[in-house]
Amino acid sequence: MRRSVLTILLFMLAGCAGQQVNAYKAAVAEPIDVWKQKISISDDPLETTVVYSTEGAITDMKNVFTGEAIDTFVRGVKDKQSGIASLQGYIYISMINGSWPRPYQINYGNPLRTSKLNEIGTDVDCSGSRTWGGCRYTYHLTFPVPLAELERLSDANYSLEQMSENVWKFRLKFQAYEDFNHVLSVQELLSIYEVMQEDGAFFAY
Questions:
Q1: Domain range for residue 13?
Q2: Exposure string (b/e) for 172-189, b if CB count within 10 Å is 16 or more?
Q3: Cis amide leading into 45 (omega within 30)
Q4: How many domains does the chain have?
Q5: d(CA 96, CA 67)
Q6: What is the pLDDT of residues 67-79, one digit of tens each?
Q7: Distance, CA of 197 to CA of 164 (rounded, Å)
Q8: β-pairing verdict for 69-79 and 113-116
Q9: Quick check: helix, strand or coil at residue 30?
Q10: What is the CA radius of gyration of the chain?
Q11: Is-contact 101 175, C-beta < 8 A?
Q12: pLDDT of 14-37, one tens digit each?
């Protein structure tokens, strides 16, 4: 009976994973005009900056049993007075491990660039350690998206077919965990970049 239940659970997990991957691929492939409509803009009159974000625009990848997950999005900030702006990538990642994985670096771009990961929040849950063989460690991380990389993507003049298949690849480096590869949509990066420029943002870094 246990084997039958386990088999059913594994099939369910495989099905859930397949649905997540398909949803993710569909969102990644959407054109820039669609991505632009998904960007949230926060212009609080009591704040000195305008905040742009793609958070929530794409389905995150999550293991429904262990809680392991990764979610990425892009956030831009524009100073209202000067118009000077910057873009950051945000990463939420949760994994099972025997100790704190300690992420420290992200590799990306062409030519290859490396940036230090900024840790803005952490959490640990050991309630399922007997079942999964380790605690679930969660990190909230940020990294800068260089202007040179945005300009490279913007100048590439990708066709729609190329866009649907093109992703911006990056690799997370850990001190106590294996390297982890993931992607952002090229359209996601370019859409928020273009929206901010259309809103008078000036990228000076």
A1: 2-203
A2: bbbeebeebebebbbbbb
A3: no
A4: 1
A5: 9
A6: 788 889 999 999 9
A7: 23
A8: unpaired
A9: coil
A10: 19
A11: yes
A12: 455 566 667 767 777 788 899 999
